[in-house]
Amino acid sequence: MTSLNAFGAVLTHAIAMETQLRDYYQSAGQGDLARDADKRRTTLERVRRENVTEIKLEPIEGLHEDNYALDLGDTSAAGQQHNADAAARFYEDSAPKINVREAQRALERCGKQYRAIVGA
User: Fold this and answer.
1) CA atoms within a 13 Å half-sphere pointing along the CA-CB vector of 22
2) Domain range holding 28?
3) Distance CA 11, CA 65 (A)
4) Could you tell me which residues come within 8 angstroms of residue 39 by beta carbon, excluding any fewer than 6 positions away?
5) pLDDT in tens, 57-110
6) 91 lies in a domain?
7) Is 30 exposed, middle or buried (CB count within 10 Å of its CB: 0-12, 13-18, 19+)?
8) How far apart are CA 38 and CA 54, in angstroms?
9) Phi, psi for 3 (deg, rounded to 5)
């Protein structure tokens, strides 16, 4: 189980997840969702770049990649719901653990966007 125990690790995971979801939604024929994932990826890259000097090296506990596993092989409606839910949970769990306010807000926005997809 890979631990996401630092600011950089959380944002790197988020960016990689958005890249995977962009490609996943493209293969599922969901162009709008693919574009949205790519916008989130771009935003997260900018936030990481701009806030790298603001990082306080406080350890983050309780976040593990395996808890947010995506099923990129299932492009059915249920598979898309599962992946959106996994992404929403990751952002909801990680945002409060980030000690840089701008980055925290960006993660919160991503979580809300995925909750809208899930419909919860």
Assistant:
1) 14
2) 7-52+73-118
3) 12
4) none
5) 678 889 999 999 999 999 999 999 999 999 999 999 999 999 889 999 999 999
6) yes
7) middle
8) 25
9) -90, 135
